[in-house]
UniProtKB/TrEMBL annotation:
Reaction(s) catalysed (UniProt annotation): cytidine(34) in tRNA(Ile2) + L-lysine + ATP = lysidine(34) in tRNA(Ile2) + AMP + diphosphate + H(+)
Protein name: tRNA(Ile)-lysidine synthase
Enzyme Commission number(s) of this protein: 6.3.4.19
Domain Lysidine-tRNA(Ile) synthetase C-terminal per the UniProt entry, residue ranges: 364-432
Location in the cell: Cytoplasm
Protein's UniProt keywords contain ATP-binding: yes
Family that this chain belongs to: Belongs to the tRNA(Ile)-lysidine synthase family.
Ligand binding (ATP): S30, G31, G32, L33, D34, S35
Annotated domain remarks: The N-terminal region contains the highly conserved SGGXDS motif, predicted to be a P-loop motif involved in ATP binding.
Keywords: ATP-binding, Cytoplasm, Ligase, Nucleotide-binding, tRNA processing
Record bears the keyword Zinc-finger: no
């Protein structure tokens, strides 16, 4: 084996050193040059090194007739190397960008097959990183986008690794030729209607003719921007820690931030903190579409502004902003009679209800607010429920979800609110576990 071959193997092992304790290394194997070299390298390293279990996964998109033969090719390569192969067939959604739809389908499959303490290895290299940087620059990306592809990130229950980002395509071609490897040439890689192919075949040859080190220097710029993004993330965390103080309604289980803390920051720093906070919860608007945040932040008086985002909503109440998604955006249906109050009651789109202590006599019903409700309180007499909720400071978006316990037409308790959620004299309490926030994006 030549010195360059040894260097490539050593570099790969060095990049994967922190992940040697994983249970499985799963290689994303398209059958193309890059992933074929990665698979071959790892299979041969496994003969002399103590590595995690190797597996390969081939995603079949079914977008062209030629692709039907690729699973068989991948299987023969894996059989020769002694690496088990899983073929996953996906359906690519139609849309404006076939590139993006195929990528979404592919990574959806990767997420499903990557389990806890496993890593998925993909074979993107330094040339791919330079293409990514230029592609995103032309789309007006910010610092995070221009930092390029990270060498590792969370994926499903495990992690995605790109151990060849410091290797050139030319290095991979030399290795493949030396080992007489066979790989698939995807016909779509020549179709220059796809943006990345246009950059690869039309733009980069011109750039590298004038600046031979263009791809290396662009990859270095991406590394600088990743470092800058890391600093922005640290700043965001400092600001979020300041705005994330506990509040009286933490029991709702909803993420929230103190508005006054955010308002002390510059506009750019507000956007940085919010982008960091929302990134795992929703797809974010581009930099030209943050007017919803300004409207939410600057609303006055009794206004109840809402900023609607792709996967949920930001509400403003009690001097805080609150993230609502999933069941919190759906109106819970009427409940009716509680047949057996000794058992917890699952409320559709509204969590779980239970009674502790002696069960009140009579036929019990669960309702939600409609307006005009009156509650009889010991030592206070009849009180309007709306006023009681105002006194308790219940956020406006939660008021219509509070389960109300009735006996006939008598309002006995309001779940979740101390002093209104049971009877101290009779020793029973109404407990409500609100619906959990949807996990959002990973």
């Amino acid at each position: 084996m030549s010195q360059s071959m040894i260097d490539l193997s050593a570099r790969l092992l060095l990049n994967l050193k922190p992940w040697r304790t994983a249970t499985t290394w799963r290689i994303a194997f398209s059958g193309g040059l890059d992933s074929t070299v990665l698979l071959h390298l790892l299979a041969h390293l496994a003969k002399t090194q103590s590595l995690p279990t190797l597996n390969a996964v081939h995603v079949h998109h079914g977008l062209q007739a030629a692709a039907d033969a690729w699973p068989a090719h991948c299987q023969s390569v894996c059989d020769a190397l002694g690496v088990p192969l899983e073929v996953v067939r996906v359906k690519v959604q139609s849309g404006a960008s076939l590139e993006r739809a195929a990528r979404d389908a592919r990574y959806g499959a990767f997420i499903k097959c990557t389990h806890a303490n496993e890593v998925l290895l993909t074979a993107q290299h330094r040339d791919d990183q330079a293409e990514t940087l230029l592609f995103r620059l032309l789309r007006g990306a910010g610092v995070r986008g221009l930092s390029g592809m990270p060498s590792e990130r969370a994926l499903g229950q495990g992690h995605l690794l790109r151990p060849l980002l410091d290797v050139t395509r030319a290095d991979l071609e030399v290795y493949a030729a030396a080992h007489q490897l066979r790989w698939i040439e995807d016909p779509s890689n020549e179709d220059r209607q796809f943006s990345r192919n246009y950059l690869r075949h039309q733009v980069f040859p011109v750039l590298t003719e004038r600046w031979p080190q263009a791809q290396a220097t662009m990859a270095r710029s991406a590394a600088h921007l990743r470092e800058a993004q890391g600093l922005l993330d640290e700043l965001a965390q400092i600001d979020l820690d300041e705005a994330g103080h506990r509040n009286d309604f933490d029991w709702l289980g909803l993420p929230s931030l103190e508005l006054a803390s955010l308002e002390k920051l510059s506009a750019a720093r507000q956007r940085n903190a919010l982008s960091h906070w929302l990134a795992t919860r929703t797809r974010l608007p581009d930099s030209d579409h943050w007017s919803g945040w300004q409207d939410l932040r600057d609303a006055t008086g009794d206004a109840r502004p809402i900023w609607r985002l792709a996967d949920g909503e930001l509400h403003r109440a009690n001097g805080r902003i609150w993230w609502l998604s999933g069941a919190w955006l759906r109106t819970p249906p009427v409940v009716g009679r509680w047949a057996d109050p000794t058992l917890p009651l699952a409320l559709l789109d509204n969590g779980l209800l239970s009674l502790t202590g002696p069960i009140p006599d009579g036929s019990l019903h669960i309702r939600y607010r409609e307006g005009g409700e009156i509650m009889n309180l010991p030592e206070r007499g009849h009180r309007d429920l709306k006023r009681l909720l105002n006194e308790s400071g219940v956020p406006s978006f939660a008021r219509g979800r509070l389960p109300l316990l009735y006996r006939g037409e008598q309002l006995l308790a309001v779940a979740g609110l101390r002093g209104l959620n049971g009877s101290a004299r009779d020793g029973w309490n109404l407990h409500w576990q609100p619906p959990s926030e949807d996990q959002g994006l990973s």
